[in-house]
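User: Protein folding is very new to me. Would you mind checking the protein record under this note? It all follows right here:
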Amino acid sequence: MTGSDWLAAFGLLLVIEGMLPFAAPAVWRDGFRRILELNDGQLRFIGAASIVGGVFLLMMLN
């Protein structure tokens, strides 16, 4: 992966992450409030599941 690939991936991440707060800020705020109420174990599980899902997706693309 070249530097431009990393920048393109980061740019796509920013576009995707910005869609919900732009389109529905109240829904985004409510979801963020719910995330803040989760305990550490739940957040770690979500983080681990995201990592595993991302690695699996990257493996499927290669």
User: Anything to note?
Assistant: The CA atoms of residues 21 and 27 lie 8 Å apart. The helical segments are 3-23, 25-36, 40-61. The two ends are 11 Å apart (CA to CA).
